[in-house]
TrEMBL record:
UniProt protein name: Hydantoin racemase
Catalyses which reaction(s): D-5-benzylhydantoin = L-5-benzylhydantoin; a D-5-monosubstituted hydantoin = a L-5-monosubstituted hydantoin
Family per record: Belongs to the HyuE racemase family.
GO MF entries: amino-acid racemase activity; hydantoin racemase activity
Lineage of source species: Bacteria, Bacillati, Actinomycetota, Actinomycetes, Micrococcales
InterPro entries noted in UniProt: Asp/Glu/hydantoin_racemase, Hydantoin_racemase-like, Iso_Racemase_Enz_sf
Naturally occurring in which organism (per UniProt): Pseudarthrobacter enclensis
EC number from the UniProt entry: 5.1.99.5
Name of the top EC class for this enzyme: isomerase
Pfam families found in the cross-reference section: Asp_Glu_race (PF01177)
Length: 247
Protein backbone atom coordinates (compact mmCIF):
# COMPACT_ATOMS: atom_id res chain seq x y z
CA UNK A 1 0.00 0.00 0.00
CA UNK A 2 1.34 3.43 -0.94
CA UNK A 3 -0.06 6.59 0.67
CA UNK A 4 0.84 10.07 -0.49
CA UNK A 5 1.07 12.53 2.39
CA UNK A 6 0.81 16.02 0.93
CA UNK A 7 2.22 18.95 2.83
CA UNK A 8 0.21 22.09 2.05
CA UNK A 9 3.19 24.45 2.17
CA UNK A 10 6.53 24.56 0.37
CA UNK A 11 8.79 24.01 3.40
CA UNK A 12 10.50 20.70 2.65
CA UNK A 13 11.76 20.20 6.20
CA UNK A 14 8.14 20.26 7.36
CA UNK A 15 7.23 17.72 4.69
CA UNK A 16 9.98 15.49 6.08
CA UNK A 17 8.68 15.85 9.65
CA UNK A 18 5.09 15.16 8.60
CA UNK A 19 6.16 12.10 6.59
CA UNK A 20 8.17 10.78 9.55
CA UNK A 21 5.13 11.09 11.81
CA UNK A 22 3.02 9.33 9.18
CA UNK A 23 5.52 6.47 8.92
CA UNK A 24 5.52 6.06 12.70
CA UNK A 25 1.73 5.59 12.61
CA UNK A 26 1.56 3.43 9.50
CA UNK A 27 1.25 -0.34 9.58
CA UNK A 28 4.07 -2.58 8.33
CA UNK A 29 3.93 -2.78 4.55
CA UNK A 30 2.53 0.73 4.09
CA UNK A 31 4.79 3.01 2.09
CA UNK A 32 4.52 6.68 2.99
CA UNK A 33 5.55 9.21 0.34
CA UNK A 34 5.79 12.82 1.48
CA UNK A 35 5.21 15.34 -1.28
CA UNK A 36 5.82 19.09 -1.32
CA UNK A 37 3.96 21.49 -3.65
CA UNK A 38 6.19 23.04 -6.29
CA UNK A 39 4.63 26.47 -5.71
CA UNK A 40 2.85 28.27 -2.89
CA UNK A 41 3.65 29.83 0.47
CA UNK A 42 6.23 28.52 2.93
CA UNK A 43 3.46 28.31 5.54
CA UNK A 44 -0.34 28.51 5.46
CA UNK A 45 -1.93 30.83 7.99
CA UNK A 46 -4.80 32.54 6.17
CA UNK A 47 -7.39 32.25 3.44
CA UNK A 48 -5.18 33.38 0.56
CA UNK A 49 -2.45 30.88 1.41
CA UNK A 50 -5.03 28.17 2.03
CA UNK A 51 -6.71 28.56 -1.36
CA UNK A 52 -3.31 28.74 -3.04
CA UNK A 53 -2.33 25.54 -1.23
CA UNK A 54 -5.48 23.81 -2.51
CA UNK A 55 -4.38 24.35 -6.11
CA UNK A 56 -0.77 23.50 -5.32
CA UNK A 57 -1.67 20.23 -3.60
CA UNK A 58 -3.97 19.18 -6.45
CA UNK A 59 -1.09 19.89 -8.83
CA UNK A 60 1.43 17.96 -6.73
CA UNK A 61 -0.79 14.92 -6.27
CA UNK A 62 -1.95 14.66 -9.88
CA UNK A 63 1.68 15.12 -11.02
CA UNK A 64 2.97 12.21 -8.97
CA UNK A 65 4.22 9.69 -11.54
CA UNK A 66 3.67 6.37 -9.74
CA UNK A 67 0.49 4.53 -8.65
CA UNK A 68 -0.80 5.21 -5.13
CA UNK A 69 -3.63 3.88 -2.99
CA UNK A 70 -4.68 6.90 -0.91
CA UNK A 71 -3.89 10.54 -0.21
CA UNK A 72 -3.58 12.38 3.09
CA UNK A 73 -3.92 16.16 2.91
CA UNK A 74 -1.73 17.30 5.79
CA UNK A 75 -2.97 20.83 6.42
CA UNK A 76 -5.30 21.59 9.33
CA UNK A 77 -8.22 23.69 8.12
CA UNK A 78 -6.87 24.05 4.59
CA UNK A 79 -9.05 23.93 1.49
CA UNK A 80 -8.75 21.47 -1.38
CA UNK A 81 -9.88 18.10 -0.10
CA UNK A 82 -13.08 18.27 -2.13
CA UNK A 83 -11.19 18.98 -5.36
CA UNK A 84 -8.89 16.03 -4.79
CA UNK A 85 -11.90 13.79 -4.21
CA UNK A 86 -13.27 14.80 -7.61
CA UNK A 87 -9.96 14.20 -9.35
CA UNK A 88 -9.03 10.87 -7.78
CA UNK A 89 -10.49 7.39 -7.54
CA UNK A 90 -8.61 6.57 -4.33
CA UNK A 91 -9.51 7.66 -0.77
CA UNK A 92 -8.61 11.23 0.21
CA UNK A 93 -8.36 11.94 3.94
CA UNK A 94 -7.94 15.44 5.36
CA UNK A 95 -6.19 15.70 8.73
CA UNK A 96 -8.77 18.19 10.05
CA UNK A 97 -11.66 15.78 9.67
CA UNK A 98 -9.57 12.75 10.62
CA UNK A 99 -8.39 14.28 13.89
CA UNK A 100 -11.78 15.65 14.94
CA UNK A 101 -13.64 12.43 14.15
CA UNK A 102 -11.02 10.39 16.02
CA UNK A 103 -11.31 12.69 19.04
CA UNK A 104 -15.04 12.04 19.25
CA UNK A 105 -14.35 8.36 19.96
CA UNK A 106 -12.31 9.35 22.99
CA UNK A 107 -14.39 11.87 24.91
CA UNK A 108 -17.59 13.88 25.06
CA UNK A 109 -16.03 17.12 23.76
CA UNK A 110 -12.72 18.00 22.16
CA UNK A 111 -10.75 21.21 21.72
CA UNK A 112 -8.35 22.13 18.94
CA UNK A 113 -5.10 23.91 19.73
CA UNK A 114 -3.71 25.57 16.61
CA UNK A 115 -1.11 28.18 15.67
CA UNK A 116 -2.08 31.85 15.25
CA UNK A 117 -5.42 33.37 16.23
CA UNK A 118 -6.18 34.27 12.61
CA UNK A 119 -6.39 30.53 11.83
CA UNK A 120 -9.15 29.96 14.40
CA UNK A 121 -12.11 31.10 12.23
CA UNK A 122 -10.84 29.03 9.28
CA UNK A 123 -10.73 25.91 11.42
CA UNK A 124 -14.13 26.63 12.97
CA UNK A 125 -15.61 26.98 9.49
CA UNK A 126 -14.02 23.75 8.22
CA UNK A 127 -15.30 21.82 11.25
CA UNK A 128 -18.78 23.24 10.75
CA UNK A 129 -18.73 22.37 7.05
CA UNK A 130 -17.72 18.82 7.93
CA UNK A 131 -20.47 18.50 10.56
CA UNK A 132 -17.90 18.06 13.33
CA UNK A 133 -18.48 21.27 15.27
CA UNK A 134 -21.25 20.14 17.64
CA UNK A 135 -18.79 18.39 19.95
CA UNK A 136 -15.99 20.92 19.60
CA UNK A 137 -15.61 22.75 22.91
CA UNK A 138 -13.24 25.38 21.52
CA UNK A 139 -10.54 26.22 19.01
CA UNK A 140 -7.63 27.89 20.76
CA UNK A 141 -4.55 29.63 19.36
CA UNK A 142 -1.11 28.90 20.79
CA UNK A 143 0.30 32.12 19.34
CA UNK A 144 3.03 30.19 17.53
CA UNK A 145 3.46 30.75 13.79
CA UNK A 146 3.71 27.59 11.68
CA UNK A 147 7.43 27.96 10.95
CA UNK A 148 8.15 28.67 14.63
CA UNK A 149 6.97 25.17 15.47
CA UNK A 150 10.14 23.85 13.83
CA UNK A 151 12.41 26.71 14.84
CA UNK A 152 11.47 26.70 18.54
CA UNK A 153 10.03 23.27 19.40
CA UNK A 154 10.41 23.64 23.17
CA UNK A 155 8.56 26.97 23.22
CA UNK A 156 5.95 25.45 20.91
CA UNK A 157 5.27 22.60 23.31
CA UNK A 158 4.95 25.01 26.24
CA UNK A 159 2.52 27.23 24.31
CA UNK A 160 0.40 24.28 23.19
CA UNK A 161 0.33 22.75 26.66
CA UNK A 162 -0.75 26.08 28.17
CA UNK A 163 -3.72 26.36 25.81
CA UNK A 164 -4.53 22.66 26.17
CA UNK A 165 -4.79 23.04 29.95
CA UNK A 166 -7.11 26.03 29.55
CA UNK A 167 -9.23 24.01 27.13
CA UNK A 168 -9.56 21.25 29.71
CA UNK A 169 -10.19 23.45 32.76
CA UNK A 170 -12.22 26.29 31.25
CA UNK A 171 -13.83 24.84 28.14
CA UNK A 172 -14.41 21.35 29.64
CA UNK A 173 -12.67 19.58 26.77
CA UNK A 174 -11.83 15.93 27.39
CA UNK A 175 -9.62 15.45 24.34
CA UNK A 176 -7.09 17.77 22.68
CA UNK A 177 -6.56 17.87 18.92
CA UNK A 178 -3.35 19.29 17.47
CA UNK A 179 -4.53 21.82 14.90
CA UNK A 180 -1.56 22.01 12.53
CA UNK A 181 0.34 19.51 10.40
CA UNK A 182 3.54 21.05 11.74
CA UNK A 183 2.60 19.81 15.23
CA UNK A 184 2.87 16.20 14.07
CA UNK A 185 4.82 14.11 16.53
CA UNK A 186 4.21 16.36 19.55
CA UNK A 187 1.17 14.45 20.80
CA UNK A 188 2.93 12.27 23.38
CA UNK A 189 4.75 15.17 25.07
CA UNK A 190 1.52 17.14 25.33
CA UNK A 191 -0.52 14.16 26.54
CA UNK A 192 1.89 13.61 29.42
CA UNK A 193 1.56 17.23 30.47
CA UNK A 194 -2.15 17.78 29.86
CA UNK A 195 -3.34 14.44 31.24
CA UNK A 196 -5.92 13.85 28.49
CA UNK A 197 -5.84 12.06 25.12
CA UNK A 198 -4.09 14.12 22.43
CA UNK A 199 -4.86 13.45 18.78
CA UNK A 200 -2.32 14.02 16.02
CA UNK A 201 -4.14 14.63 12.73
CA UNK A 202 -1.42 13.10 10.55
CA UNK A 203 -1.40 9.82 12.49
CA UNK A 204 -5.20 9.74 12.50
CA UNK A 205 -5.45 10.38 8.77
CA UNK A 206 -2.91 7.72 7.87
CA UNK A 207 -4.69 5.14 10.01
CA UNK A 208 -8.07 6.00 8.48
CA UNK A 209 -6.63 5.95 4.95
CA UNK A 210 -5.15 2.51 5.55
CA UNK A 211 -8.48 1.22 6.83
CA UNK A 212 -10.38 2.55 3.81
CA UNK A 213 -7.92 0.92 1.42
CA UNK A 214 -8.13 -2.40 3.26
CA UNK A 215 -11.93 -2.26 3.17
CA UNK A 216 -11.76 -1.41 -0.56
CA UNK A 217 -13.73 1.78 0.00
CA UNK A 218 -13.27 5.12 -1.71
CA UNK A 219 -15.13 8.34 -2.47
CA UNK A 220 -18.62 8.03 -3.92
CA UNK A 221 -18.68 9.30 -7.49
CA UNK A 222 -22.45 9.33 -7.93
CA UNK A 223 -23.00 13.06 -7.35
CA UNK A 224 -21.04 15.51 -5.20
CA UNK A 225 -17.56 14.21 -5.99
CA UNK A 226 -18.13 13.00 -9.53
CA UNK A 227 -15.15 13.54 -11.79
CA UNK A 228 -14.94 17.04 -13.28
CA UNK A 229 -16.82 17.38 -16.56
CA UNK A 230 -14.49 17.36 -19.57
CA UNK A 231 -13.68 20.93 -20.54
CA UNK A 232 -10.82 23.17 -21.50
CA UNK A 233 -8.96 24.65 -18.52
CA UNK A 234 -6.65 27.54 -19.37
CA UNK A 235 -3.38 27.89 -17.49
CA UNK A 236 -3.71 24.87 -15.21
CA UNK A 237 -0.41 24.61 -13.26
CA UNK A 238 0.31 21.15 -14.60
CA UNK A 239 0.85 22.69 -18.02
CA UNK A 240 4.11 24.62 -17.75
CA UNK A 241 3.84 25.75 -21.37
CA UNK A 242 0.61 27.59 -20.55
CA UNK A 243 -1.38 25.72 -23.20
CA UNK A 244 -4.95 24.69 -22.41
CA UNK A 245 -5.21 21.40 -20.51
CA UNK A 246 -8.00 18.88 -20.82
CA UNK A 247 -9.55 17.69 -17.56
Amino acid sequence: MRILVANVNTTTSMTDSIAASARAAAAPGTEIVGITPRFGADSCEGNFESYLAAIAVMDAVTSYPEPFDAVVQAGYGEHGREGLQELLDVPVVDITEAAASTAMFLGHKYSVVTTLDRAVPLIEDRLKLAGLDARCASVRASGMAVLELEEEPERAVEAIVSEAMLAVTRDKAEVIVLGCGGMAGLDEQIRQRAGVPVVDGVASAVTIAESLVRMRLSTSKIRTYAAPRPKTVIGWPLNSAGVAAQL
